[in-house]
Amino acid sequence: MRAHHELHIDHTFDDLAIPDWQQARAVRAVAAAASDADDCRLMLEALGLVAEDGIPAQRDGSSR
């Protein structure tokens, strides 16, 4: 028998499609809240994200 405080989840959310823009916003929010690079990496990993998800794609290939 499990202790009362344990959480058991029988499903995963891998099949949910999260839009790229929403992933990018999540990565930037985590980066802003992190105390350092290691903290950021750990939080992103816990969410199943990587830092590169927060980098927007270049739109037209030209520079300003």
TrEMBL record:
Protein name (database record): Uncharacterized protein
Domain of life: Bacteria
